[in-house]
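Q: A reviewer asked whether we had any structural model of the full assembly, not just the individual parts. We don't, so I'm hoping you can provide one. Inputs are below.
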Amino acid sequence: MGSQRLVVIGNGMAPGRVLDHLFERAPDAYQVTIFNAEPRVNYDRIMLSPVLSGEKQYKDIIIHDDAWYNDHQVTLHRGKRVVEIDRANKTVIAADGTKAPYDRLLIATGSNPIIIPVPGHDLPGVVTYRDLDDVDAMLSASRKAGRAVVIGGGLLGLEAAVGLKMQGMDVAVVHLASTLMERQLDEAAGHLLRKEIERRGIDVYTSANTTEIIGTKSVEGVRLDDGTRIDASLVCMAVGIRPNTSVADAAGLSVERGIIVGDDLKTSDPSIFAVGECVQHRDQCYGLVAPLYEMAKVVAAQLSGDTDTVYTGSITSTKLKVTGVDVFSAGDFQQTEGREEVVLRDAAQGVYKRLVLRDDQLVGAVVYGDTKDSAWFFQHIKDGTDVSEYRDTLIFGPTYAGGDPVDPLAAVAALPGDAEICGCNGVCKSIIQETITGEGLTSLDDVRAHTKASASCGSCTGLVEQILALTLGDQFDPDAAKPVCACTDLGHDAVRRLIVAGELKTIPDVMQQLNWKTSCGCSKCRPAINFYLVCAWPGEYVDDGQSRFINERVHANIQKDGTYSVVPRMWGGMTTAQELRAIADVVDKYDIPTVKCTGGARIDMLGVKKEDLPSVWSDLNQAGLVSGHAYAKGLRTVKSCVGTDWCRFGTQDSTGLAVKLERFLWGSWTPHKVKLGVSGCPRNCAEATCKDIGVVCVDSGYEIHFAGAAGMHVKGTDLLSTVETEGEAIHYIGALMQMYREQGWYLDRIYKWAAKVGVDYVRDTLAILDNRNDYYDRFVYSQQFMQDDPWAARVAGKDAHEFTPITLEHRVETA
Amino acid sequence: MMSGPESIWVKVCELTDIPLRGSRVLKTEAGCVALFRTVGDDVFALRDQCPHKKGPLSQGIVHDRSIACPLHNMVFDLDTGFARGPDAYEAQTFPTKVEQGIISVDLRNLSEGRQ
Ligand code: SRM
Ligand SMILES: Cc1cc2nc3c(=O)[nH]c(=O)nc-3n(C[C@H](O)[C@H](O)[C@H](O)COP(=O)(O)OP(=O)(O)OC[C@H]3O[C@@H](n4cnc5c(N)ncnc54)[C@H](O)[C@@H]3O)c2cc1C
Ligand code: SF4
Ligand code: FES
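A: Here is a predicted structure for the entire assembly that you could use as a starting point for your response.
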């Protein structure tokens, strides 16, 4: 290991990045020791908001795990706060007495959240928003529900407020200025933002000055200077940050607002560097990661002997990380002498764009609602591009000037190679493209791994995907890059969680709140969302027929010639002379060309004209035959064998159980189709062990199997559990169905879902009776709304327009 | 929409006869025409026959100003009838207009492009 000793104070995002670069440039140059007041490894602080809102967990945001510290033989002192720098002896000393001598020292103490010293500010229940402990504190408070007051309506405050709301608390935001995020937004954009925040049920108080935090033992509320009292059990102060300079100060380094550094990022002591939010460079203190990452590159260069690389300051841009709200601002957009502004508003779409120009150069931009062109605007600001050529159309973005506005890739295609795509990590377009081709990358995750683009706050994810699409063309498979479809950046899990967390109950609501890029989705996402809503809000949500594939819309299977097939249920494969007679009559009456026994052990009538469907069904209904859902992403068939009724080997009444199961499960919508088999003994004549769910009867009871497949992919089932009674088997299977319904991605069969979450996880979860009861109860509750025969409903007139074509009053000349 | 002198405008139904983001089939001697109503209440008419393998387009899913064929999910632009994406398929389109909530279709070319 390195002869030189490098000691780092603070283990935040800036030094983490310094070390990444340093180990690339000079792997063995230094022996590194880190002191971190936080008792943990390096994590992505900017992703605390998704952790608070429940969209992510701590483990998802770790940047350097334990292995990393081992691999680079870095000594990490967790939970040890440095209290003194002994510059004479080049040694740092921690609160607990731990000492570490250094040749080079790096101060990266970040900043401290500002606590306004109003009475009551030290009551239990008052938290700040800076690190994981703060998030944990808020999460445990949110479990007790009640109201939270967030003081401060800036980036942080709003992310905290939305997070707490999504955790089920009532939330009020108290903001001193008259406009939310006034440092990043102008009044108009701030107004749109306020409306959106209020629409989410968060109370907003602007021009509101907190004078007191009320409470005796713990927080009970806050009082504003106009006397208003807002009750609260939690108060989160997010009013700003102050560079954390105490140790540097005590050590006699030159400090003003922050620790003074030069372009080489050295402090007034040449053997001591400082980086991150704690520094003051050319009179600037920064509060965003992008500039810190730029500094980090320079520190790493300097440490590895390259003294030519220097830091000259940054222009920053900000984006609010609240799912469903798109706000971007960059540069200087104050309205002053000699400046002109271009404004575009689209109230209907909730879009607001304001560009500020000085002598034909873009100097500032505020964009609300539609931020797809923001990278392009930001590039203009940084380059000081002369826009006189196209200033009239500038605000419409690159697509306008560059012709074809419908091409979604035009905006990205128009960007120059050095256009910055990922603000957090300072990754430009050409780097991403070169890495994609060079490394043969195919997915978003690949790009994140190789370039760090979109790996921090994620707000550039859409752009990175477009670059993938641009570079790979057809090779780029959007499924590989998690989003549900091209209409969104969100994956299935995120969409499902947000539907529940945000209480989104209609498809338009989901698309609005989750920021869908298309006006009403596509044939990929609409059926998925429709199912997720059906599953999340049984009895409340009104199924959207127009978001279902034709088979599920008309409850029959379309055939290649546009006719339909009709498959009635035969419960557990049982039928009667009367049912068969009814089928025979229908076949004659509507001269149906083909009658066939299906692979699902029932009868399929193929080639029925669409107009005939309702009368065919009505005739079948007469005989008690109902839809077999042979078309449904739902319960299909429960195959059985004759079991103890007849078979000399039968151990249990497999036919009876199959019938009970089919009558219990039918009508439920699921992520993909569900097929069961119940065999009376391990000879398994009902093929139970290649079904989605299978039961194999044995002398001692019932083996419950799941996650089999026998379609494009063939796979034997895994054993879920063995139970003694029929009742337990049905209970277990009901619970499994609901777990799959609530967790499965649309179009994943049970075996695919189980592979994603883990077979053991499913088994262990359902092994616990309480869990089983919860899932079972939710399934039973949902079933009461699902179990009416869709055929009967349509015979009674539902969706008549589907089945009755329009004809013309007067003949049409067709010469 | 433009229409030459010899165009044949035919009143077919009311706007509300078609469900939002839905479709209806218009039956004529010269074959079926699919009528679509988009989320913006624009109405389009295409021959109810996918140029790929004759799938009934009326049975597909309407999204934005396009329709996904029910058989193999090819997506067609309702304005132009062209398939989205690489494949060079084109579905026959008919001019439409909506006046006082009544939909009319110009069936001048109905007999053409019949397969
Ligand atoms: C009718 C039937 C074939 C037959 O004549 O027997 C059939 C017909 C179709 N199957 Fe099947 N499958 C039929 C039993 C099966 C079976 C055997 C079984 O159910 O025990 C399997 C293998 C087991 C399984 O499900 O994995 C089967 C695996 C598939 C698959 C592959 C599923 C997979 O995940 O790999 C598809 C494609 C899909 O669903 O995406 C499919 C899709 C289809 C579709 C719906 C294709 C389509 O979208 O049009 C066919 C509809 C024809 C129609 O209009 O009825 N069918 N299909 C069977 C109806 C069973 C029933 O009574 O409901
Ligand atoms: C909730 C939240 C959301 C954010 N969102 C964004 C965003 O979307 N975009 C963006 O660009 N920026 C965002 N930021 C800002 C960004 O996180 C910070 O700019 C960045 O983390 C600063 O990095 P740093 O290394 O300078 O300091 P920090 O990451 O704060 O690290 C400082 C570390 O030093 C430790 N420390 C302090 N004093 C001592 C001592 N004496 N001894 C030992 N250890 C000490 C602290 O415990 C801390 O772990 C966000 C910040 C928060 C809190
Ligand atoms: S096997 Fe293929 S062709 Fe046969 S019914 Fe199933 S899907 Fe159709
Ligand atoms: S028939 Fe329309 S896509 Fe194949």
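A: Points you may want to mention in the reply: Chain B has a mean pLDDT of 88. Chain B touches chain A through 41 residues (CB under 8 Å).
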